[in-house]
Amino acid sequence: MTFKDFNFDAQLFEGVQSMGYLKPTPIQEQAIPIILDNKDLIACAQTGTGKTASYLLPLLQQISKTDKVFTKALVLAPTRELAQQIDQQVEGLAYFAGISSIAVYGGGDGMIYEQQRRAMADGVDIIIATPGRLIAHLSSGVIKLEHVQYLVLDEADRMLDMGFYDDLIRIINFLPANRQTLLFSATMPSKIRKLANTILKNPEQINIALSQPAIGILQQVYMTFDHQKIKLITGLLKSGDFKSVLIFASRKETVKELNKTLRREGVNAEAFHSDLEQEQRETLLRQFKSRQLPVIIGTDVLSRGIDVEGISLIINFDVPPDPEDYIHRIGRTARAETTGTAITFVNERDQKKFSFIESLIGREIERIPLPAELGEGPVYQPELKRKSPFKKRKQPWPKKASA
Length: 403
Description:
Rossmann fold, globular, 403 residues, alpha/beta
């Protein structure tokens, strides 16, 4: 099957060709006909499967046939980086079709907010927004969404993990009931099912989430105590010929501390986190994409918000809390049929979580012995119950004094 088989308008097909698209991916092959048939859709698809184009292409086809006076489509995304990437993809695909879009996200100064407000008030065809910033615009009463015909929730599971459920419901209340709703998620926990039952009507379902890393990823693991991690990661970065490296940690505080430590060790690295201003975040991503900055350290939000080809090494400084997050983290490398390396540090407390990852991918990940100068690491005993680092209170919490 090729993209010619979808019978897109000539201008849209020209955009498809200019983007270098040849054959549709499985999610595109299944989702595009359903969306063109005006049906609601629940699609379980991981990052890197081509899901963005799977909903953008049919929406662009539908919008091109309408009177483009009001906003016709709303795409909600969990992070500003993903919103920007979706907007860039719209610009590429719709270049010849004359369809407009804007990415709406927080951060920046009042000038950016005003630019977003004016663009939406003028009736941009497609809005790609993070929930929090869109709520701010809607609360002002200037932006109207009563003509929106298409709603897309991209990476819905991540939005719920970030606490956006109430914001999503509030936004949906601004939309007409008679619309087409598309929900894309990498995982399908019960909270996603609950949301889908609330906002979708008789949806079709697609499941492309194979929960398997790309074949080109060399996966390795070090069993290491916490005090050995810094020397280990410094040695890996200085000894290997890795031009582009992503380091993941599960907490923002760990990201900041690790960045300070690596810079003291002479590693050219930068931390990427929510405390940075929007301009700082965009600068870091540009430097990383252009290979001016070889190492970026971030949390799991970055694992779904960055799309850079040629990343040669992924390091999990700690084991991600969810096995699916491991797939997303290491999926940043070996994209577009390239190869890459993914290394995970596992301390004694994270061994159980790591065993769940191996169960998910269905195989054992190669164990690499620590360098001799670091000494021995912990013995792998995932079945061993370990004491909580938090002490239990013997007395109940005191009651609040009555007013």
